[in-house]
Amino acid sequence: MTTAATSTSDAGTVLAADPNWWRQAAVYQIYPRSFADSNGDGIGDLEGVTSRVPYLVELGVDAVWLSPFYPSALADGGYDVDDYRDVDPKLGTIADFDEMIAALHAAGIRLIVDIVPNHSSNRHAWFQEALASPRGSAARDRYIFRDGEGPDGTEPPSDWRAMFGGSAWEPVGDGQFYLHLFAPEQPDFNWANREVRDDFLHTLRFWADRGVDGFRVDVAHALAKDLTYPLRSHAELEKMRLVTDGSHPLWDREELDEIYAEWRAVFDEYDPPRIAVAEAWVEPSRRHRYAAPTSLGQAFNFDLLRADFDADEFRAIIDHNIASVAVTGSSNTWVFSNHDVVRHATRYGLPADHGREGAVGRGWLLSGGATPPVDAELGLRRARAASLLMLALPGSAYLYQGEELGLPEVADIPDAARRDPTFFRSPGVDVGRDGCRVPLPWIADAPSFGFGPAGSDASHLPQPSWFSSFAVDVEDAVPDSTLNLYRRALALRHALQGDEALTWIETGAAFVLAFARPGGWRSVTNFGDAPFTLADGLGELLLASGPIEGRALPPATTVWLRAAG
Ligand code: NOJ
Ligand code: CA
Q: How many helices (H) and strands (E) does the chain have?
């Protein structure tokens, strides 16, 4: 057991040992394969991240959340992990990881890593051992193997469907099947197995010892399962989707409390304690279970991400979540974009009725389907307004790489270039998530837009020519670019941030949301179609998400103001 307060890689750190650093952090998600490529193989890597630390400093984020960088065949973009305690050779080495974390810490930026405990990859040593071992063996008990059904045992144990399409059971050729809630390359672990639990505690310590400040927990609500026979049908499970009493056989079960209490004990071995944020797509009233201080401590709310650009909806969501975190003493988590959803600059430009819900914007991208016009100008204006509002809210703001450039979704990736299993396993139904994972444009006038080193045009997903106008060097030079808006907003947020109080200001206009934070900091957003006049009493203008003249706040615009006292 270790009680190390700092890791060997922490030399030169400027981070204070503040146990509450996460409560109102601006966290920048790096999807490493698409961030920066140091060696020209078309795949972003850890050295690429290290080389961009100055960019992150100038942007002004408090922490990085790094999506999976573990050895992986990339059947699901790295969420299919071969080895939890190593770095994918395509992305670098453990030494590169140590260098990256040292550079981040020296720059005052924390690091949260993604951990994927529900399933490993089918190439994980344990799964290979399970395949090579007989039914009923200890090796098979680490995963979820069951005998086939039907007269000759060739039918799957149940009709359950996987999240990426197809059956959730895969035959292994000896009469048994294994469970995979996601792709067949992602066999689910059996969390009732003590070895599985211990191995993850080992993994948490492995990274915490290297100085990692926290963990983002993938599908945190899925680990515990009840596979008591007879298994219910898929239709029954669907009907139970919203149960909130922990009785669903696959999701949000009570046994998770016990699992995460063990994780908490490991987090608390460190000073400051390591933090965690749950990715748990549960009914909002159940979120507090994951956010509890005895559990993971924080849980994502994806409510704003699923909302329309609408004042009433935003206000209800903000109120609800403030009340929800009060139950546990956790802090809020706001997010508009991540590697699983259509980028919000595009989502907000879709026709109002067009699939923003459910598939989170992907409805319009249907393979072979009709593409509705996207109003890119409106989408970006709303995205900038929404982001500025979010950055004034109490709690953590989770930002996804590229949103600080106002980057739109890439809609027209040719089928042959797509990578996401969602596309392959639901042919013609869902084009998947590649459109938000296209490598970032850094330099307008360079091959691969500067994603790779000088002269390299390699990119693991094709970049469209219009990426040039969103390149970092272009936006850097334009004073009111989205990049400069984020930089200014993050710097001001730092300077202004007090405690987590929020007070609504009644403006008399239903299409305007205005709130006050401690110290006279105010945020006002116009969600309507007509300008709104900012009363002088609201304070002096600090920052605007779009052009503004005098005291008239145009539609789809947010301003920050500062009132005396
Ligand atoms: C959620 C991750 O964000 C997503 O990218 C992944 O496909 C699934 N979990 C399965 O690990
Ligand atoms: Ca590379």
A: 16, 18
- 79 ligand 1 Cβ < 6 A: yes
Cα 305 to middle of ligand 2, angstroms: 31
In the block, tokens 């706001």 appear at 334
Q: What is the pTM of this model?
A: 0.95
pLDDT along the chain (565 residues), means of 10: 40 74 98 98 98 98 98 96 98 98 98 98 98 98 98 97 93 98 97 98 98 98 97 94 89 97 98 97 91 97 91 97 95 96 90 55 51 84 98 98 96 87 73 92 98 97 97 98 98 97 97 98 98 97 97 98 89
Determine the 3-state secondary structure of 217 from DSSP. Answer: strand
Write down the residue that tokens 């650009």 correspond to: 309
Measuring CA to CA, which residue among 350, 375, 376, 344 is closest to residue 363?
A: 350
Preceding amide of 230 cis, omega within 30: yes
Give the span between the Cα atoms of 253 and 227, in whole angstroms: 12
Return the ligand number nearest the Cα of 34: 2
Which residues lie closer than 8 Å to 72 by C-beta, 6 or more apart?
78, 79, 80, 81, 82, 88, 121
In 3D space, the residue among 301, 339, 341, 306 whose CA is nearest the CA of residue 321 turns out to be 301
Extended strands (E) in 314-458: 333-335, 396-400
Of residues 472, 446, 475, the one with CA closest to residue 458: 446
Distance CA 213, CA 277 (A): 12
Sort strands 512-517 and 503-504 into parallel, antiparallel or unpaired: antiparallel
The type of residue at 415 is D
What's the CA-to-centroid distance between 283 and ligand 1, angstroms? 18
